[in-house]
C-alpha cells in the first residue's frame, strides 16, 4: 500500500507539519498556497440547488459567512494541529472565548473559571453571563482534582488557562478535566501561551480549545483573530452557535494567519530560548523579588510544566521589588518609561519586545504579590544582548 502525504504528516515533526498542513496545491492549479477567495455572495446553478435544506447543501460553499477555500485551509490546519473535529475562526481571541461560553451555557447554569484567567474573560463572565442568568465561581489554578468539591448540580462548564495570565500559574489539566467529566461538564481551555506546538489540550482531556491567533500564529502584530476547536462530541453545538451568531473572518486575514503558521515553531524556539535566558538573568538581580516563568526550576508550577508541556513561549512576568522611596505604581511606571527598545503595549506573540504593568485588581484567589508591582514581558525575536541592555535601562531609571 502506498503511503500518502497525509499519512506522512501524521507522524512528521512539527516544522514539517506546519510547512504542509492545509495545503492542496493541485486543487489550485499547482500554486503552493491557497487562493485568497474574497466574497459574500456565492451563486447556485439552479433554484432547486438553492432551496435544499440547510443541513444538506448542494454545494460546499453557500454564503461568505460560512467559509471559503481560504478559511477552510486554515481550519483544516488547526484541526490537524489540535486533534480536533472542527474549528471556527472568529474576529479576535476574546470572541474565541465568549462564543463557546455562550454556545455551551444557558440561563440557570453555573461555570467554573480559573482565577488567573485573561482579565477580559472575567469581565465578560461578570457582566454578560450574569445578565443572562449564568452564575460563575472562580477557582484556584492549582486546585487539580480538588475542583470536584466546587462542582454544583448545575455546573456545566470548566474553563482553564495555563499558564495563568500575568502570574503564570500552571494547572494540572488532566486532573481537572477528569473530575469535570465525571459531572458531565464541558472542559474548555485557553491555550494561547503554549500553542499546539508546546501543548495539545485535547490529549489531556480538554473538549474545546481556544486560541488568540492574534499572538503566535500571526506573529507579526498585524492581524486579529481567534480559533475555537472542539472534539467530536462538542463540535455540533459550537458550529451551530457560530452559524447563528454570524461570526466570521476575512479570507485576507485567514491567509495571513496561514502564512504565520509556517514559521510559528521556528519563531517559538527563538522566543523560548531568549525568554529563558532573560528570566535567568532577572533571577540574579537584587531589585527583582520573583521571576514568574514556568521554565525556571524555582517556579512553583515548574514540575507540571516539565511533565506536560514541550516548551515555553516568550511571555513571562517578574515582580519588581518595592523600595522605600518609590511605591508600586510609580516604581513600575519609572521602570517602563526607562525602556527604549521594548514597546509599551498590551498584546504579545509578535516579533518585537513589549512590556506592561500587570493589572491584578479583580483577582479573588490569586491576588497581586505584596512584594511589588508585576511587570509582564513579551520577549521578541531581537538579540538577547540588546534586550538585556534595554532592561538595564529600565532598572537604571529606578536606581538599579
Ligand atoms: C491569554 C489570552 N487569551 C486571549 C486573548 C485575547 O486575544 P485578542 O487580543 O485577539 O482578543 C489574549 C490577549 O491578550 C490573551 O492574552
Provide the descriptors you would attach to this structure in a database record:
400 residues, seven-stranded mixed beta sheet, five-stranded mixed beta sheet, Aspartate Aminotransferase, domain 2, binds pyridoxal-5'-phosphate, 2 domains, 15% strand, 14 helices
Description:
It contains 14 helices and twelve strands. By secondary structure, the chain is an alpha/beta fold. It has a seven-stranded mixed beta sheet with strand order 1-7-6-5-4-2-3, sandwiched between helices. A five-stranded mixed beta sheet has the order 8-9-12-11-10, covered by helices on one side. Helix 4 runs parallel beside helix 10, helix 5 runs parallel beside helix 6 and helix 13 packs across helix 14. It is globular and about 80 Å long. The chain starts with a helix and ends with a helix. Pyridoxal-5'-phosphate binds next to helix 5.
Number of helices: 14
The dominant shape is globular
**CATH topology grouping of the largest domain:** Aspartate Aminotransferase, domain 2
Broad CATH class of the largest domain:
Alpha Beta
* Mean residue pLDDT: 96
Order of helices and strands: HHHHEHEHEEHEHEEHHHEHEHEEEH
Number of domains: 2
**Bound chemical compounds:** pyridoxal-5'-phosphate
Number of strands: 12
CATH H level of the largest domain: which superfamily? Type I PLP-dependent aspartate aminotransferase-like (Major domain)
Tell me what portion of residues adopts beta-strand conformation.
5-15%
CATH architecture of the largest domain: 3-Layer(aba) Sandwich
Q: CA-to-CA gap between the ends?
A: 67 Å
Strand order, sheet with most strands: 1-7-6-5-4-2-3
Major pleated sheet: 7 strands, mixed
